[in-house]
Each structure stands twice: as C-alpha cells, then as structure tokens.
Design a protein that fits this description.
Strand 4, helix 7 and strand 5 form a beta-alpha-beta unit. The chain is of the alpha/beta class. The strands form three sheets. A six-stranded parallel beta sheet has the order 1-7-8-9-6-10. It starts with 13 loop residues before the first helix and ends with a helix. The longest helix has 18 residues.
C-alpha cells in the first residue's frame, strides 16, 4: 500500500485493537480486513451480517489472491502482505506463471465467475503491503498488477472484457472517507460517538442464487400495509409493519418473535422490518451463525440497535436467556431483537416482555394476506390462470418459481399438475431423467433432508447427484469461515419431498426412517435431519407414534454435538421423555449446557420429583455458574417450591447479587418463600445496582406482595413508576403498592394516567382492587370497574373485586348482575365466600345467593372462613335450619380455639 504508514492501529476500537495486536503483522492485517468489509458493504444492497471469524481473511496468497467481490463495476483484491520488495516481485512472477500454466488455478477463477463476468466492470481496486520506497518502485508494481488484470486474467475464456478495466490503488484516505459514511462498518471497527450521524449504506448478504434473489431489491415486497388498504375490515386482527415496529421500538418490549411454517414469509418480513427500522435511525444488524456466542457481540451505549436473528432454531447461542445475557455483556446498551423460527420451536422461547406474531397457515387472516401477495406476484409473471391456493399459502413456493423463470430454468408447466407439491415432485424426478420419484435413488431424498453439509465431506461420495441438484437449482453453495457448504435453496421445498416420500412408503415407514438415521450418522448430519423431521412432525403422518424420535435417540443420544436438538425433543415429546429421561440426564449431566435440559423439562412438565435427584447432583457440581440462576428461576416459576433448593439458591444469590438476571430469581423466590426477610439484603443490593431497569418492577412487586413493607423499597418505587408509568407492567407494581398501604396523594397521578391508558385489560382488575383497598374515592373508580366487569366478570379475581367493592360501601346494584354468574362458575372455591358475605352485609337479597350456601358449606364447613358466612347469613335473617348442621361441624373443628 503506497500510504500504509498513514493507517494507525490506535484508530480502532480498543477491543478490536487487542485482537489485532496478537497478530504477527497487526496493522497490515487489520487494514486488509477493513478493506474487505468496506467493499462488501459498499457494493451490495442487502442486509448486514456480522462476521467474527475470518471469512475474508487472506492467509495464503497463491490460493486466495484472486478472491474478491464485485458489484457496481468494481473488484477488490488484496495482494500479498509482504514488505520485502524483492520477494514481492517473485510472488507476482509466480502468480503470472500459475495463470499461464496451472489449470487448477484457472478453474478456481472460473468457479468465481459471478465475481469476474460483469461486462460493465470499470475498476479493479487493489491493496498491497508491498514496500514501495520510491515512485519508480510503486509504478513498477502498479504495472505488474495492471498486466495481471488486463493481460493474464483477460486471456481466460469469458473474461476478455478485463482488457479495458482500469487498475487503481485503494488508499487509507479513500478508506477513511468510506468509513465515516457507513455507520455499520464504522461501528464494527471504530465505534460511534454521541454526535456521529452516518448515512446508511445498504448492507450485505453473503449469498447468491435463490438466497440472493430472495433478498434483492427487485423482488417485489407486497407489504402488510398494502393488504390492509385493500382489506380495511382486517385492521383489528392483522398487524402491519408500522404497528409491529411501533410496538417494538417505542415501548419497553425486548423483542418480537415471528413464527410459523417454513416458507410463510418470516425472513422477508424480518428484513422489511429491519429496513424500516434503519429509516428511524436505529442500527439494524443481522446476527448470523458465524457468531460463536452472544458475548462476542459488543454494543455501543449511545446507539439504538435492532438485532435480527433468522431461523433461531439453528443458532446455538439463541435461547430463552439471550436477552438477559445480552444485557449482562452490554450493560446500558439500548437494543431490541426480532427473531424468526418454526412454530414447533417457538414453544421453547420464554422471554419475559417479548411480543410474538404467528404467521402460520393456521391463522386465517395470515393466509388471506399470503394469498393476496401470491395473487399480486402471479399477475406480474404471466401466470394469471394459476389460483393463489395452488401454492398452498407458501410464499417461498411462488418465489422459487419466480427465481427459476428469471434464470431460465423453468421447465415443467404448472398447469399440468394439480398442486405445486405435485409439480415439485415431478421436477425432482426429471432432475435425474426419471418419470417418477419412485425411480430415483432413495439416497437423493436422504441427502436432501441432511443439508447443509460440507462440500469437502460429501462431494467425493455424491459427485454426480450433487451436480444434478445444483444444476436444477435444488441446492446452492455458501461460503463460510469454516469452509464451503452446500444448502438447499429453501427448506419448505424439502418438506414437500420428505413428506411425500414417507407417505409413499407407509408400509415400510419404520425401515425408511431407520435408513435415514443411519445415513445421517454416517454423514454427520444428525442435527440437520432432526430439524427436517421437526418441520413436518405435526402432520397426521406422525400422530400415532413418534417413531422418528425413538430412532433418533437410539442412533444419536451419545452425540454431544446434537445438544440443541435434544432440547427440542425433550421439550416437545413428553411421551418419549418419560422413556428416556434417565438416559438423557445421566448421559448429559457433564455437558456445560445441561441446565437447558432442566429448564426445558420444567417448562413443559409440572412434575418436579423426577428431576430433584439430577438437579441436586448437578447443583453440587455447578453451584455458582451464572446459568445456575436460570435453573433456579424456572424451578421456582413452575414448581412454586422455594424449600427444596433453598440453601443452594441463597448461596447463589449471595454471589450473584448484582447481575441483571438475579432480579428474575429474587422475584420468584419472594413469591414462594415463607421468609422473605431472608433475602432483604439481596433485594436492596440488587435495587441499588438496577434502580431503573425495566425488570426492577418484578422485584419491587414481589417484595410488596410478600412483605407488605413499602418503607424498605419506597425510594425506588416512585422513580421507576415515573419512568415506566405507561407500561402495562407498571399497573401490577402500582396495585401492589396500593395494597401495601401507599399514600394515595403520592400515587394518584400515576394511577390515573395508567388506568386511562389500559381501562380494559386483565391487569386493570388488580389496579381497581388496590384503589378500593387503599380507600380511594369509589365514585372515581366506579365507571372503570363497571366496564371492566362487563368484559371480565367471570375471571377468577372478579369475585374478590366484587366483595371488596361491597365491603367498602360500593353501590350493590352496580355489581348485582355479576355475582350469580360468577358463583355458578366458582361454587366451591374458598374465595367464593367473600362476595357472598359482603353481599349479605350490604343488604343484598339473600334469596339470590341461598342456593350456593349449602353446596359451599358441604365442602368448606370445616374451614375458618365458614364462620364468617354463618354470621353474615344469620345477621341477614337467613333460615337457621339451612346451616344448622354445618355450624356443628365448624364448632367441632374449632372448639379449642
């Protein structure tokens, strides 16, 4: 590089600088990597990927020197990192010789035809670390590179146009000007200041073929907003992009989970939301499977981020704890996430304060939207005679047809087949020159359900099959840091093939599944095959018996690399889990992620005894891991048992008293412990560290409900309520505060603001209860209570609210119509006595509730509350004969009291 000396390592972020200081040639290596990042981002128009591995690092000149990226008429190539000018000249001689003599290298270049065959190519940029001490030397090297491009490369068939390309050095000054205009790259390498504003440059996707087509701007995106304009009656049942983003960005929600069947438009919606977020000055980053773990993601405290996670079932670092781990590693950062996954996997994601959107085929309005989109697209591709339902509400199917038409690979006539699935199966058969799928090698299907696979691992075994599948656009190559992989163009296509194949072989279903399992084992594809079956497992094909899971466990239960799919199975298939739980937890007890098995079990099953032994053993070995806190949280949340692991939990809390996720454990522990004062110091330490975190209300609410002692936490309640008063969650804290004896003058402003914002949600009942209990004005709350009861009169809490209203002197005529229906639903509940007692005390007609007295007393005569009912009944002039026998039972029970 001519002016490489002007690039200093200290311009980089401190954490990035540390990484490069460990390199043998840190300045040059960092400079090279920045060059590639800038060109990737500058020359592409799709979404940003963050890569933390060396996807574009040049390590061996002879192999990689000609690897580059093109777009908008530019190629960037890095020439050998070597300061020895004499050696550099020899290297250039060497590559010129190879270009003339080495067929293998020529083939490598031809394999990258997408990079070189752009007929509009104008510039060939190059970077070099070669020492250029004089102008003459610089010009000599420049001439060598010019010859390399305009002469040697131009000799290769198909690259003749390179004769006219201009070669230009890429200098640090040019890099700087691009850096300050690109906030994504600037953030990754240098960081963003409080005042820095950078123009958005559409970011990147390392993809081609179908995937690139799916993400390119020219593929029409028919928005959800457009659908609503055409169908205004759907506005209440259907969220458009603006509404989704409004709910996500302008509240205190942590993220949005978009889930549904394969091919229903989840990824496309994800990107559209990302594009719209960038227009609102949020930095949108797509986090890919190149990320090893979430702690590697570093976020700036002065920037708003939207993080995109596509197909989270394939991301080893995405789970229910991801939000808390992101907060843990990036304290103070403001971010939201949008994630997509299949319906079956969505049941595993339990993140507090997360929104969700179901776009599956089971949601009628979503199907209407998809058919609306398909109809619009069909009208542009001369297929007007095809009806939208031909594509089975799968947007991926119609996109696949669009893609094939664009690349002139569309052969079979859609009109010749009843459904898209029939057409697709015929296409697969014809791919191998057969008239029926029954005539092709069964291993073709086994192979399709096993992708993605490493090219190196399988190319030798299935060379001809892979060539046919690539040629007919069933699979594509994808370059990753770890090497080249082959992937199916879209999973929804493979789902059609797998389900059709299994149905055709129903008489031999067990044998076929076993063969697929054996194939998966031989080709290291356990997790991929598992996910392929998971996508179709809900079909009636598998309802009688989860045979696939049985075979899967028999083949792979010892395979520790398949941990993620173990979690999926243990969560989804309770029949299977009962059979294999000893095997699973025994075999995986030493795995560092085994705690997720406990969490999955606890999330799905209410039985806790089976796990106690395993948990005891695991906690003994892992008493102070940060993940141990999540185990305690789920144990407390589901088992409601604070005693079994009380000592272990308190020990953990004593060590992790200032971590954000500790608030989760504290909140649940306070709900279920008999001695909340035991953790008062932990509560105060945590509140001091996180006085205004969104999660703080859970700890405050739990403390108030457990102790009623508002004085201990008073200093934190008002600031938090003031900041988050218009959040739904604030209502629960205000209600707990009122029940703990809050000063109405202090709280009235927040109460009124909140109840006006949320007059008709379930939580409002608790707010009204708190207001009445704190002896607030009944005339103020009356209107809200009546409207709330109209909607929620049969909720469990409604009876208590009615009783409290009557107890504090509320008008009985207002609640009269709701008492009897509520008692019909809850005739024997111990809480049912409260509205009855206060109805009688308020002078209500005893005849209206008389029929409920005897059934309730029959079940609860020996309960302490029974005497209050007896007294209220007698005071109201009720007939003693109705309750005489139950009085004797009560007296026998409490005669010594």
């Amino acid at each position: 590089m001519k002016d490489i000396s002007s690039f200093k390592l200290d311009v980089l972020r401190e954490d990035v600088r540390k990484v490069y200081k460990r390199k043998s040639n840190p300045t040059l290596t960092a400079f090279k990597d920045i060059c590639f990042d800038i060109f990737k981002d500058k020359l592409n128009k799709t979404f940003p990927n963050i890569h933390f591995q060396e996807e574009f690092y040049i390590q061996e000149f002879k192999i990689h020197s000609l690897y580059g990226l093109f777009g908008d008429g530019s190629i960037l190539v890095w020439c050998k990192e070597d300061r020895d000018e004499k050696k550099a000249r020899l290297i250039l001689n060497d590559i010129e010789k190879q270009l003339k003599d080495n067929l293998e290298l020529e083939n490598k270049i031809q394999d990258l035809n997408e990079l070189w065959e752009n007929k509009n190519l104008r510039y060939f940029y190059y970077c070099s670390s070669i020492a250029m001490s004089t102008k003459e030397n610089f010009e000599a090297i420049q001439n060598r590179i010019k010859k390399l491009v305009n002469t040697n490369l131009a000799k290769i068939y198909g690259l003749e146009h390179l004769k006219q390309v201009e070669t230009k050095p890429f200098t640090w000054k040019e890099i700087q000007s691009l850096l300050v205009r690109d906030k994504y790259i600037y953030h990754k390498w240098i960081g963003i200041s409080k005042t820095g504003i950078y123009d958005h440059i559409p970011p990147i996707e390392e993809a081609f073929g179908y995937r690139k087509y799916l993400l390119e701007n020219h593929l029409p995106y028919i928005s959800r907003e457009e659908f609503l304009k055409a169908n205004p009656d759907k506005v209440q049942a259907f969220y458009d992009e603006s509404k989704i983003l409004e709910n996500l960005l302008y509240g205190y929600k942590c993220g949005y989970l978009i889930y549904g069947d394969a091919g229903t438009g989840k990824t496309r919606l994800l990107f559209e939301l990302g594009y719209q977020a960038t227009k609102k000055n949020w930095i949108t980053l797509r986090i890919t499977d190149e990320l090893n773990d979430i702690y590697e993601l570093e976020l700036d405290n002065h920037v708003n981020y939207v993080l995109l996670f596509d197909n989270v079932e394939k991301l080893k670092f995405f789970d229910s704890e991801i939000f808390y781990r992101l907060r843990y590693y990036n304290p103070g950062a403001n971010f939201r996430f949008i994630a997509t996954c299949k319906t079956s996997y969505s049941r595993q994601i339990h993140i507090e304060n997360m929104l969700s959107l179901n776009v599956s085929k089971h949601v009628e309005v979503e199907n209407e939207y998809k058919n609306f989109v398909i109809e619009k697209v069909l009208s542009t591709m001369e297929l007007k005679e095809i009806q939208p339902d031909y594509f089975q509400s799968k947007l991926s199917f119609v996109v696949y047809v669009l893609h094939l038409k664009k690349i002139n690979s569309f052969k079979n006539n859609l009109n010749d087949f009843k459904t898209f699935s029939d057409w697709l199966i015929d296409r697969l058969a014809s791919c191998f020159g057969k008239k029926s799928i029954d005539l092709i090698d069964r291993k073709v299907v086994y192979l399709l359900v096993s992708f993605p696979l490493s090219s190196v691992d399988i190319y030798g075994k299935f060379r001809d099959t892979l060539k046919a599948l690539v040629k007919e656009n069933w699979i594509e190559k994808r370059k990753l840091a770890a090497g080249e992989k082959l992937e199916v163009v879209h999973e929804s296509l493979i789902d059609v093939v797998l389900e059709f194949f299994l149905r055709e072989n129903m008489f031999f279903l067990n044998e076929e599944i076993k063969e697929i399992m054996i194939f998966a084992k031989e080709n290291k594809a356990a997790a991929n095959v598992f996910l392929s079956f998971e996508r179709i497992i809900e079909s009636d094909l598998f309802q009688p018996l989860p045979i696939f899971y049985n075979f899967w466990f028999e083949q792979f239960w010892e395979d520790s690399t398949s941990f993620q799919v173990l979690k999926s199975a243990i969560y989804e298939r309770y029949v299977l889990v009962y059979k294999y739980v000893d095997l699973l937890l025994g075999g995986f007890l030493k795995e560092d992620r085994v705690y997720k098995l406990f969490i999955a079990w606890l999330s799905q099953f209410k039985e806790k005894d089976l796990l106690k032994g395993y948990l005891k053993k695991w906690l003994k070995e892992n008493p102070l891991e940060i993940e141990t806190g999540f185990v305690f949280y789920y144990w407390l949340l589901i088992s409601k048992d604070a005693k079994t692991f009380q000592d272990e939990c308190l020990y953990w809390l004593s060590e992790y008293f200032v971590e954000l996720q500790t608030g989760l454990v504290l909140g649940e522990y306070l709900k279920h412990t008999d001695d909340p004062l035991e953790v008062v110091e932990n509560v105060l330490d945590w509140l001091e560290k996180y006085p205004l975190a969104f999660e703080t209300s859970s700890v405050l609410e739990a403390w108030l409900n457990a102790t009623g002692n508002k004085d201990v936490v008073r200093v934190y309640i008002i600031p938090w309520t003031k900041k988050y008063n218009l959040e739904k969650k604030a209502g629960l804290l205000i209600a707990a505060w009122l029940n703990a004896g809050a000063d109405l003058a202090q709280i009235k402003e927040y109460f009124i603001q909140w109840i006006k914002s949320y007059p008709l949600i379930k939580e409002t009942g608790k707010m009204i209860h708190g207001w009445i209990y704190a002896e607030g004005e009944l005339t103020f709350i009356q209107e809200y209570m009546v409207k709330w009861l109209e909607k929620f009169s049969l909720e469990d809490v409604s009876g208590t609210l009615i009783g409290l209203w009557l107890k504090f002197g509320g008008d009985k005529d207002i609640v009269q119509e709701y008492i009897k229906p509520w008692l019909v639903k809850y005739p024997y509940d111990k809480k049912s006595v409260m509205p009855v007692i206060f109805w009688l005390d308020a002078g209500g007609k005893k005849e209206m509730i008389e029929e409920f007295i005897i059934p309730w007393m029959q079940k609860n005569a020996k309960e302490e509350e029974a005497w209050h009912l007896v007294k209220a009944w007698r005071d109201a002039g009720g007939n003693n004969d109705v309750i005489k026998n139950y009085i004797r039972l009560w007296l026998q029970q409490f005669s010594k009291s």
